[in-house]
Amino acid sequence: MDNISFQYPVWYLFLCLALGGLFAGILYYRSTAFRSQSSTLNTLLGLLRFAAVSLIAILLLTPLLRRVVRDVKKPIILIAQDQSESVGAALGAQKAAYLSSLNALQAELEGEYEVKTYGFGSEVREGIDSAFTDKQSNIAEALSSLYDLYSGQNLGAVVLASDGIYNEGSNPLYANAALDAPLFSIPLGDTTAQRDLLVKRVFHNRIVYLGDKFSIQVDLAGDNAAGSNSRVNVYKIVNGKASLLQQEAVTIDQNNWFETREFILDADQAGVQRFRITLSEIPEEATVVNNSKDIFIDVLDARQKILVLGNAPHPDLTAFRQALSNNQNYQVTTATIDNLEESPSEFDFIILHNLPSRSKAATSVLNAIASQQIPHLFVVGNQTDLPQFNQAQRVLSIQRRGSSTNQVQAYFKPGFNLFQLSEDLKEQLPGYTPLTAVFGDYNIESSASALLYQRIGKVETDYPLLVLGEGSGTKVGVLGGEGVWRWRLFDYLQNQDHERFNELIGKIVQYLSLKEDKRRFRISLSKNIFDENEPVYFDAELYNQSFELVNDPDASLTVKDAAGKEYNFTFNKAGNAYRLNAGILPVGNYQFTGSVFFGGERLTYDGQFSIQPIQLEQYETTADHNTMRLLSEQYGGAVYYPESILEIAAAIRSRDTVKPVIYETAQTQPIINFKWLFAILLLLLASEWALRRYFGSY
Fold it and tell me: What is the pLDDT of residues 629-639, one digit of tens each?
């Protein structure tokens, strides 16, 4: 529907037309150029001039063309199909016939309505396929997603087909989806509880530490299996082979049976470990797929090997060992320099008591510390060779004056900020029994910090007692006195425990032994255990010699499964770093090696991760048709079973609210924008000029 409007009054339009006609008529009435010709020629030329001038005058008024466009929108019908494994199992051999009926419903509706199909389960996506392999069911998310997509549009009806089982998301009856349309549900599956045992849930920690014991709690359930006997087994899966760890008998004493069992396992191997909990099959059991459940536990080897090495037997060595052995992450070895059997390079942290001494230089130990950059703590006593000690570290310099010693107590000065100590320790430590310290001059290097200072008698000196710092890229500590065993005994005398002494030694060792990752090529994962439907993302960083982030060269990654199969990838460059989406991988344990060639050397990084199965769909096999019925009632729809799917089309047509909607849109455009008007104008002027030229005038 089109009409023309003007920006000026209509009388102004007629005035322009009259002036144009008057101009053309007077011009040719007074013209004598064509008196010898027929009067028809003057009339024709006058009309051409009139039309041209009038058109120009009209265009000067900038008239507007207003067009009203009508668009008829058909009602939208949404068909949402649950494509989880439980629905596929429930349909069984009838799956093809059911999908054929669903396609027939779609074809029946497409003439009058705009039909959209969606599949849902782990996620919501367009289209319906025949796989039914989703590992999860999230009906609430499906309803919310459809509402987000079609709210405000002419939504006629929603057809929802599902077994009513949801194992992800909230209860669909309370989903925040205000669908302004009736919902017709198609309940699928069998609501009859069959004879079945299942491992319902397993509760466990995702991370445990090597050498610890950890607990797993197993929820066992059974339907219609009263009077049966079974066994619950716990296996460890290594390279695809299962080894039995524990086994217990279970007796099912009622049809609606539920029981929780607890198992205590040993974390005896580092890395991601796979365990399987199973219930043995009973006679006439409907399915055994849900009789087992696999879990993955990340066993961290966070233990550090600590060597307490003395010049000679001393009660301080035992005090250090007892304080550190309380931490399960420490494996403590005590030895003297004469009976050390292991190589110093095998340890993560070393305490050197009265070493180097005047009789034993401990050169091999100090060389191993320097070459391997092993963090260490010196305990300076009367047997320490101070010149060698001063050469071995750059934290604290001690110049002996004479051969005497001082009995010193500890006190705190403000300003130490490398770590925090409890207020209880800060309050009690200054009153502890004195240590024996060398009498001499103490000088702290500028890069070091003093935690404790010496108090001699009642005089608080500036001589440091405990200094922490770093030299040649290695953290170093110096305790300038021996006899810490007295502190441990005094702590027990005062408090009937060793908590404050253990805290002090533990905090010192924890700070000094904490290693910074100085590798120039690093790869990180958001976690070590992924679900089987979850893509695995890798992030990588490359640093130059100045530890500036770069990504000029290409970086590659090789992922290897337990069977030795390799997956090769190349990282994408993202900003100054690298990123890789390795996609979805099969269930199992994996190792990966990343590499990059940069600055003339090949840098590598190794790691591991695991993919765990999602077995949610296997542990709820009884359909919940009541939820489907309540959903239909909530949204003003009705329930139709698979054998009457085609009746849904008639039910939708009978609804007065499911009608087309007419949208009108007004479009306004200046007529001057139409190029064909200029063609007409040019034709009028050219025709007039041609006639005048032909009959002997200009």
Answer: 999 998 889 99
Q: Is 341 exposed, middle or buried (0-12, 13-18, 19+ CB in 10 A)?
A: exposed
pLDDT tens, position by position, 214-270: 999 999 988 888 889 999 999 998 877 889 999 999 999 898 899 999 999 998 888
What's the sign of the alpha-carbon dihedral 312, 313, 315, 316? positive
Tell me how far apart the alpha carbons of residues 476 and 489 are, in angstroms, rounded to a whole number.
Answer: 26
Query: Pairing state of beta strands 155-162 and 183-187?
Result: parallel
Peptide bond into 182 cis (omega under 30): no
Kindly state the average pLDDT of the residues 12-26: 62
* DSSP tag of 571: P
Residue 174 burial (CB count, 10 A): 9
CA distance 615 to 89: 14
Distance of CA 629 to the CA centre of its chain: 36
Contacts of 156 (CB under 8 A, 6+ apart): 75, 76, 77, 113, 181, 652, 655, 657, 658
pTM of the model: 0.54
Report the C-alpha gap between 306 and 299 in whole angstroms. 21
- Computed over every residue of the chain, the mean pLDDT equals 85
| More confident of the two residues 65 and 441 | 441
Give the span between the Cα atoms of 505 and 352, in whole angstroms.
14
The answer to whether 275 touches 265, Cβ cutoff 8 Å, is yes
Q: If we measure between CA atoms, which residue out of 113, 109, 181 comes closest to residue 152? A: 181
The helices-and-strands tally (H runs, E runs) of the chain is 14, 35
- Which class for 471: exposed (0-12), middle (13-18), buried (19 or more C-beta within 10 A)? middle
Euclidean distance between CA atoms 128 and 399, whole angstroms? 84
Q: Which two tokens stand for residue 213?
A: 């014991």
Label the pairing between strands 435-444 and 449-456: unpaired
Helix (H) or strand (E) holding 548: none
Whether the Cβ atoms of residue 142 and residue 116 lie closer than 8 Å to each other: no
Extended strands (E) in 224-270: 229-238, 241-251, 256-266
d(CA 117, CA 103): 10
CA 572 to CA 595: how far, in whole Å? 14
Q: Which two tokens stand for residue 596?
A: 């990059």
Question: Residue 438 in 3-state DSSP?
Answer: strand
The C-alpha atoms of residue 486 and residue 640 are separated, in whole angstroms, by 83
Q: What is the pLDDT of residue 473?
A: 76
What is the rounded CA–CA span in Å between residue 235 and residue 639? Answer: 45
| Token code pair at residue 375 | 């963090």
Taking the C-alpha atoms of residue 224 and residue 244, their distance in angstroms, rounded to an integer, is: 28
Length of the chain: 698
Tokens 């669903």 found at: 102
Residues 434-493 have pLDDT tens digits of 999 999 999 998 888 999 999 999 899 999 999 999 877 789 999 999 999 999 999 999
* Token code pair at residue 21: 């006609």
The DSSP annotation for 613-649 comes to PP-GGGS--S--HHHHHHHHHHTT--B--GGGTTHHH
Whole-angstrom distance, CA of residue 175 vs CA of residue 190: 25
Two tokens at 95?
A: 């799956």
Amino acid residing at 644: S
DSSP for 487-520, please give it: HHHHHHHHHSS-HHHHHHHHHHHHHHHPPP---S
Q: Could you tell me the pLDDT band of residue 30, with boundaries at 50, 70 and 90?
A: low
Three-class SS state of 178: coil
Cβ–Cβ under 8 Å, residues 237 and 265? no
